[in-house]
Design brief:
mainly alpha, 5 helices, globular
Length: 120
């Protein structure tokens, strides 16, 4: 039951941070889903860093649940990314949709790598 608590608290904090980024970025977004991209990029860097620590045994189970499963899970958002990409396609903004999809995936992979390197 304690495990569920740590995931719950971490997920709530991650979701609040994602919401905060959306509120800060929305006035300057200009049609491109920058807030989701920023949240996902930051979450990938953090998750990569935490995975690096975890692989070396430098992170206890409760921290993994709180930070990796909870916080990063609540902070990043695949469903919102997918919906925004679909909306761009539906509205005929194909270049923006491709930039969002390709950029998000490529940046996510690069950011996981960066996070892993930072943990060394």
């Amino acid at each position: 039951m304690v495990s569920v608590f740590w995931v719950f608290v971490g997920g709530g904090l991650g979701s609040l941070c994602r919401y905060g980024i959306a509120r800060l970025i929305s006035p300057i977004a200009g049609g491109f889903p920058y807030a989701t991209l920023i949240a996902n990029v930051l979450s990938c860097i953090l998750l990569g860093y935490l995975v690096g620590l975890s692989v070396r045994g430098q992170m206890a189970g409760a921290y993994k649940l709180f930070l990796m499963t909870g916080f990063c899970g609540g902070f990043s958002t695949f469903s919102t990314f997918s919906n925004e990409s679909y909306s761009l396609l539906q509205s005929g903004q194909y270049a923006m949709a491709v930039a969002n999809i390709g950029g998000s995936i490529l940046l996510g992979l690069v950011c996981i790598y960066i996070g892993l390197r930072l943990s060394v």
